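Here is one such protein, fold included:

. . .
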Amino acid sequence: MGDHSELPVYSLFVHPNDLRGMLRDPEQEEAFQGRLKVGRQAYRIMIALRGAYIRRYPKKSFSVQFLSPNSFQAARELHLNAEYADPSMIRNKLSFDFFQRIGALAPHAHFVKLLLNGGSAGLYLQLESVDDLYLKKRNLPPGAIFYAINDDANFSLLRSNSNRLKDELEEGYEGKVSTEADWESLRELLYVINTTPQADFPNAIDQLVDIEQYFNWLAGVVCTHNFDGFIQNYALYRNGDTGRFQPIPWDYDGTWGRNLRGERLRADYIPITGYNSLTARLLAVPKFRVRYKRRMEEVLETEFTADRLTPLIENLLQTVRPALLDDPHRKEFISRFDGEFEVILKFINERSRYLFDHLVDLN
């Protein structure tokens, strides 16, 4: 399983002039026509750069939409992440596997080798798009999906890092699968979070949020230590049958002891409660606080342990290492990669101790 020869090879072709234009101005959003070949099958596609901060790196990440055939692996689009700032390349994948283990929804992710106009572009992480097909593959009820595209998706009436009111309740969100009625449901959620009296809040919020799934997600963000994960880097799914919202994690390279720039982050940097307006209101309700504490204890005892995670980490590292030796952007940094197992393991042990010590904060 750790043999990189098993990794799929994707051959991506873009007109050289279009590729130069895309790379010359990484801030532009234009998509270009191209072709993707996987095995014997070729696809006409539209390709664009993806991400915000990561566009500045020399190794770019891409979004791919399929034109003809119009689907690939039961999806109409995919994301190819360079994971450039993560010395291990595995933090995103490790995070999503961890979320799935604790019962939270998360995108599927796997590694591929990318050829760009015939030359090696290196190792990439293919991320599944969170959309209507994502729901269908999991036999989930159809429903609205919103992307939290910036840190104003903080469940507050105020902008992040500011005392200034938002111009619109839904600032920070982008509709992926949405109607005007869905936007109204999102506005109702944000209104209830921010205006409902405390005595009425438990019943009101229980009608709008899947509390169990929210706490699975919150435990995942807190354990993996995603600084931005509470106020962006998530999708918000409204189950069409129950009418309840739940978050789905997204972009988790800045985790497991490193931030989005790849810098080391102290294991006590993020509190056990996380931070955003919805979490603060939920944890102010004694019965919800007890539920979160119980869930966090379960996760710490069963899944967020060095013994449980070590085989997964070792397998992922063994999978990517040979491919990194052929990666034109990463092969010179292989010695740093080889130290990442200890970095991640040290983080798990330190973070676990911190969270166990701070379970009392939830009393």
